[in-house]
């Protein structure tokens, strides 16, 4: 079992930045999982944001966030971060981190955090 706890969400103006963090704990080995970030806006389906491989050597992003979001991980600290720049109102959502397989499909992830709210005002 892996427990994931996100932090760093909040209310920010359009154009601003946030850094989301996800801390992993539990019996699983953090470095054995690819890590992903997903988001879900009110009334919408969960959507892929970014993923990073077990070593951190490979990343993938949704087209809507490329060039603005950066995913990174620190296997020594069991953390994965999402740096979000140039925020737009359409980025407003609950952001979830997940542990699983390197994929843009949420079904490939086995463990999920509780989410952190990001709200972008125009």
Description of the molecule:
The protein has 122 residues and is mainly beta. The chain contains no helices and eleven strands. Strands 2, 4, 5, 6, 9, 10 and 11 form a seven-stranded mixed sheet that branches. Strands 1-3-8-7 form a four-stranded antiparallel sheet, with no helix packed on it.
Fraction of helical residues: under 10%
The largest sheet, given as strand count, sense and whether it forms a barrel, is: 7 strands, mixed
What oligomeric state is this? single chain
Count of alpha/pi helices: 0
Number of strands: 11
Shape: globular
Radius of gyration: 13 Å
What string gives the helices and strands in order?
Answer: EEEEEEEEEEE
Structural category: mainly beta
What is the CA-CA span between the terminal residues?
A: 40 Å
In percent, how much strand structure appears in the residues?
over 45%
Average predicted confidence as pLDDT: 96
Poorly predicted residue ranges: none
